[in-house]
Structure formats: structure tokens, C-alpha cells
Amino acid sequence: MKIAVIGSGYVGLPTACGLASFGNNVVCIDNDPQKLTTLQSGIIPLYEEGLQELYETVKDKLTFTGDISSVKDAELIILAVGTPMSDDGSANLEYIFQATKDIKPYLQKDAIVATKSTVPIGTNDEIENIINRPDIAVISMPEFLREGYALYDFFNPDRIIIGTDNISVYNKIRDLYSSHIPAEKIIRTNRHSAELIKYASNAFLATKIQFINEISDLCEQVDADVSDVAAGMGMDTRIGRKFLNAGIGYGGSCFPKDTNALKYMADKHGVNLGLVSSTIKGNHDRRFNIANRVNKYISDIEGKARVAVLGLAFKNGTDDIRYSPAIDIIKNINHNPIYAYDPRAMDNARKELGPNVIFTETLKDCISDADIIAILTEWSDFKALEKESFAKKTLILDYRNILDEPTMRSKPNVIYKRIGQKI
Predict the structure, then answer these.
(1) Which domains does the chain have, with CATH numbers?
(2) pLDDT at 243
(3) Half-sphere exposure of 127 (CA within 13 A, CB side)
(4) Which residues are catalytic?
């Protein structure tokens, strides 16, 4: 099948490479000249584990261009452009509607336009109105790719949702995936249900994160351990262990904008989503609560403290700092300078953080002679602290609970604090 993917970001690139690996000819179209130059030189400009390696195996099936007319031979056109959050919390649909207008003159007869971008209910109806051709099918096909695990999720999806009332179109898309994906994981809904599945899924997971963070706060006051509580809760198959990791709150390109967009949609239709609203507020407050904790520890140190933060990306496995709680926490730490290190996200973070942040080349450089070390992203690289010796009194604030507790508590000169334990 000839496939065109509009957009070459964290969704478009893994999708394009994955579909090319199925044997399809894929053209990836983007309007960013700098990104195109990088892609056309054979370099993937974002970090996603295994993506560069996969590209090397499928590059004969994959092309990159800024020429929108390249969709003219495509049987399937996938819209994977950004739908960022507007100031009022709604999804900004400017880019997806513009992409639709751009491809309209070039669509071949019986082409399928599939929206992978996360869009509010009714967006595909509007896309269909813009195209205004009875021979063109518009379907909702939401993505469920976790950043850092996008390729794993592409090849091992929990589900593939195809939102369409057209059975023949559904069968064609199902056949595209069914040679590689179990048929029982491919389901059909109407377009509105498909659009809402994505929002509802992300809002539920975000709520789960906020819930365990609130339980973590309670644990700190009653001498319980949130790790034990989460483990015990997660053994209940109705609850599950995933997304019950206490920390500094959720971030990234999906959860913040999708929870806000869902609330905006509900408000528009007169529906009160109290649980989602509470999650949004609680997650916003969480990062400032953590920053205040760090500020208190700094104030307790006599003399000039050296403060190091480990982690800038919103999660491990990516260089993405969009809505990263780590970035907000650093901005609200009242100290100058702050030493910072992240295995992947430092180039992006340099554009966001001020001159009071000193980016170090290595983990060792960052923690050298530190009085306080705060772990803000759950990179496995940071477990190297378990093998480090500390020559002076060092407070380690493990706000992701990734280090081995007995090991850290046995270290001379180390005061080790985990989140969700008695303060």
C-alpha cells in the first residue's frame, strides 16, 4: 500500500517507520525545512529508543518531503500533526484543519484519510466537511504510542481503534495491520467513540497518577510507605500496578493537554467532570509542592549549598520536555546556580531554562560535591548513585523512588529520602 503520513514528530515518525517495516511504501510529509534536511540526511531528529535503527532497515521504503502533492498516489493518508493546548484548555485544531485543506486537491479516488492526531469529538466530521467528497473516507484512528516505548507499542499494541461506519474501509485498514497484529486487538467503533476513547484513556491514567500522589502525601504523615501501598493495591487485578508510581506529577505532550481538552469538551456540553478537574488542579499544584520541599531543604543547610538535579525530560526514554514537571520544579527552586543533567533532554532544556542552570556533561560532574541531589526523572542511568561514594554529607531526594533503599541508607554521609515515606 502507498501511505502518506502528514507530520514527522513523536507520532508520525514511529508510525511511518513501523508501516514501512510492514512492506508499505511510505512518504512522510512535513513543513519544517530544518527537520526535513535532517531527515533527508538519514538522521532521526528526535530520540525514541530503536527508531534510528529501525529507520536504517526501512529507508528504501520511506521518503521525506515537504511537497504536499506527494499524497496524490496514496491510498491511505494519516494525519499526525500537533493539536497543542490553547490558552482556554481546548485543543488547537489549526494545524490539522490546515493539513486537511492542503491535501484536499491531491487526494486520489477512494483514498482513506485517517486521523491519528488526538482531536476532540466531532473533529473528523469537520475534516469530512472540508474535504467534501463522497468518494473519500474519513476515519478516526487514535494513536496509543507511549513516548520512550513508541516502537514497542506500535508492534505490540493493546488495541487498534478504527472509527468508521464503513465496513469495507474498516476491512481495508484491518488488513493493513492484521498480518502483524492479532485480529482480536483490532476493533471498530463509530468516529465519535474513537475520538473519545483516546481522551478518556489518558484522563483515566492521569487520574491514577494523581491519586497515588495524594496517597503518597498521606503516607508521609502516617508513617506508611507508598511503595508498599501501591504494590498491595496493584495486586488487585481490577486496579493493576501500572501508573501507581508516586512522583512529581505527569507531564508530556499528551496527559496535560488531553485532560484539559476533555474538561473543555465536557464544560461545553454541560457535563461536570469533577474527577478530571481535580486531577488537573492536583497535578498542577504537585510540581510547586515539590519545589517548595527542595527550597526548604536548601534553607536548612548552613552556608552556600551546591544543588544538583537529575532529570529534565518529562519521563525516561525521551528527550521531550513539553509540560515536564522537572522543568517547572527547577524554575521554582530558589537557588543559583543549579547543576543539571539528563541523558537525552539537555539540548531541549537549554532553550527553556535560564542562565542560573549549569548543564553538566556527565552524571558524575553534576553530583560532584553536591549537598543536595534531587532525582526528577526515572532514568535507569541514575541508579549509578547506588555505586557512588560521597565524601561529605549529601541529601539525596529520590522523587521517583528508583534507587535501592537499603543500599542508599547504608552509605556513609548519605541522607536518603524517598517520596511517600514519613518526612
Answers:
(1) 2-189 (3.40.50.720), 199-279 (1.10.1040.10), 285-418 (3.40.50.720)
(2) 97
(3) 32
(4) 254
C-alpha 295: how far from its chain's center? 28
> For the range 70-74, what are the long-range contacts, defined as Cβ-Cβ under 8 Å and sequence gap of 24 or more?
70/4, 70/27, 70/29, 71/4, 71/6, 71/27, 71/29, 71/103, 71/106, 71/107, 71/111, 72/106, 72/107, 72/108, 73/2, 73/108, 74/2, 74/3, 74/4, 74/27, 74/108, 74/111
- Counting as low any pLDDT under 70, the low residues of the chain are none
For residue 420, give the nearest of 404, 399, 403, 402 by alpha carbon: 399
What is the phi/psi pair of residue 77, to 5°? -115, 120
- Residues 81-109 pLDDT 10s: 999 999 999 999 999 999 999 999 999 99
